[in-house]
Every structure is written in structure tokens, then in C-alpha cells.
Amino acid sequence: MGRHGILLFILMGVVACATPATVHQERYLASQMADRIRVDSTVAEDPAIEALLYPYRSRLRVSMDMVIAELPYDIAKAKPEGPLGNLAADMLRSAAVGMTGAPVDIAILNNGGLRVPLYAGPVTVGRVYELMPFDNFLVILQLKGEQVLALADELAAFGGEPVSGMRFRIEAGKAVDLLVGNATVEPDRLYTIATHNYLADGGGDFPSLWKPEARTDFSLMVRDIFIRQFMMNPRPTPRLEGRIR
Fold first, then answer.
1. What pTM was estimated for this model as a whole?
2. What digits encode the pLDDT tens for the residues 42-92?
3. Cα(89)–Cα(87) distance, rounded to whole angstroms?
4. Does residue 208 share a domain with residue 99?
5. Which entry of 31, 38, 53, 126 is 20 to 30 Å from 68 by CA?
6. Residue 149: in which H helix or E strand, if any?
């Protein structure tokens, strides 16, 4: 099945039972044994397994190798702002507008979810899977302006994360000169935020996302959003824009 130098752990448990099985019988682990088997180039490939996997692997390779975009230069994540984060947040926000048919004020992602840089040249489907390997899905939140102000401070305290639709300056760990669109934040107004379930469900350090006024979950995965957006705009030119500075 390929030689990838993986460590395979096999765990065997023996469950002891004193009486014949019944619906409410108590069971407990009597003993366990573990062994470590190194799977590397010393392990011969099994022809039968290779024959079984070949048609699936071939079809998968065709899909993963499909070129969906072309980048003129390398882009990577960075703090407080990076071109890869800008591109990712813009793609999420654009997709959210398409899904809801309504304006979306802000999109926010986390740098930790962007696993690899994108290099100049062809961008393949497989590379997008490497960029976003998690099964995170799109979430739309409604936050009051006062929550948006708190969110900006949380982002500032964290040193910045990928955002779209908002701009601010970090000063003494706080967000100053915050704009959403081109306007200051109105504390009582509702703002629409696009993010993903990891951040909305308590991941990251942004509690302002955890108790929204309203929440809508979509089954669309973030990596599928990226793939669709690349296909719609196959020659993006993301740059630093002073979103967080």
C-alpha cells in the first residue's frame, strides 16, 4: 500500500466475562498488549493489495492533479497579515455572499487552519487539500457591533488572523481605528460574519464568535469553497493591504 515510513500501532484487548452474556452484563478490560510495527521501505508491497487499490488510486490522482488556478508568485500566511490569509478570507466571504444572497460584512479564518503555502505556478486540487485538510464547513454568524468591537480586540491580542471586510491597527494589544467596510462600527447594528465551525464552536481564542445573535451552518466545506473560488478566479493576485497593521 505504499512505503511512507508510517508507524502502525496494533492494540489487542482481551475482555473477560464471568458469566454468559446478557443485555446488562458488566464488562471490563482484563488485559492489553501493544506492539509497534514500522512500515517503511523494508516492507514488501503486496501485489494483491496494489491491484485492488490501483483503479481507485488512478482516478484519485487524476482528480488531485487537476489544475484550477495559476499564481504569479509565492504566497504564505503571516502575522499580523499575510497574502495567503487575505486570499483565503476573501474567498470565504465571496462564497458566503453567493450562498446567502445577501451582503457579508466580515470573514475570519485562522492561520493554523492554513497548513501550507501556495507557490508560484499551477495550483492543483490536491494542493488545496494540503492547504485545508480539515473538514471545516462554512458558518454564518450575526454579531452586534459591540461584539465586533470585542472581536477586533481579540484578534489584536492574538497578533492578527486572516480577515476580509475589516481593517484596524494594533496598539498596545488593542484594535484601534477599526473600520468595517469603510465605516466605523455601530454598537447596536447587526453584522454578518462568515467563518467556519472550528472557530464558531470554540476553537481559537475568539469568544466573541461563540455566542452570536444568530447562526446558520452550511454543509459546504471550506476547502471546497477554495476550489470553487479558484476555478471562478483562476489568476488571483493577493497582496498585503494593511488590513491589520
1. 0.80
2. 888 888 888 888 888 888 888 999 999 999 999 999 999 999 999 999 999
3. 6
4. yes
5. 53
6. helix 145-158
The CA distances from residue 162 to 28, 60, 64, 166, 187, in Å, are 48, 31, 26, 10, 23
In a domain, 167, yes or no: yes
Which cell is 116 given? 501550507
The CATH number for 206's domain is 3.90.780.10
Q: In this predicted model, what pLDDT tens digit does every residue of 96-153 receive, in sequence order? A: 999 999 999 999 999 999 999 999 999 999 999 999 999 999 999 999 999 999 999 9
60: containing domain: 6-64
Please report where in the chains the cell 505556478 appears, as a residue.
121
C-alpha cell at 6: 508510517
CA distance 156 to 153: 5
Q: Do 180 and 165 meet the contact criterion of CB atoms below 8 Å apart?
A: yes
Peptide bond into 80 cis (omega under 30): yes
